[in-house]
Write a structure and sequence with these properties.
It is a single chain. The protein has eleven helices and no strands. Helix 4 packs across helix 11.
Length: 203
Amino acid sequence: MLAAALRAYKRHGLAGLTMRSVARELRVAPNALYSHVKSKEGLVDAVIDALLGDVEIPDPSMEWRESLVELMSAARTVVLRNAELMPFFLSRPTRGPNALRLGESTLQFLSRGGIRDEAAVASLRILLVYAIGFAAQEAPRRADPSGGKRQAESVRVYASARDRPHLQALAVPLARHPDDTTFRTGLKWLIDGISNTFGGGSQ
């Protein structure tokens, strides 16, 4: 059933992910699905967890900070590829096997850095908010066909703000769209801050 739900989503998008569309994929009556999932919300949860299966766990031999960078970068990539589902990645609790796998791996990496217990829980949540929130900022800019014009207009507005010298001086970088380098740099700052606040390990 899960594979059918994923196929239905990839073919028809979120609006077309329904009990009927999944039933058509399986060539069964829609009523046959209710023993597996109760509603469209359940289908969305199942699809999100299936998509999280594309997030690869970094090599365990990597340094723990780098492991977190790679893991969160992979999660961001999956979210960006499925921007239509972005509101659900944070707003709905995910308890499927893939979500649990990623949560356990993140906590393991944090533990190697001496970050455990409540500090690890807080760190996990902050890292997820950063990764998914960054993707949420990126997605509309990537999809905007007039992005270059909008960026040029932003430069013009900032550069003409003569009573705002800091905005004026930084007009070009302020208008620049977020990218992979920005994401990874900010993520490293965040992890270093977590380590400096809570950490005690180095492996």
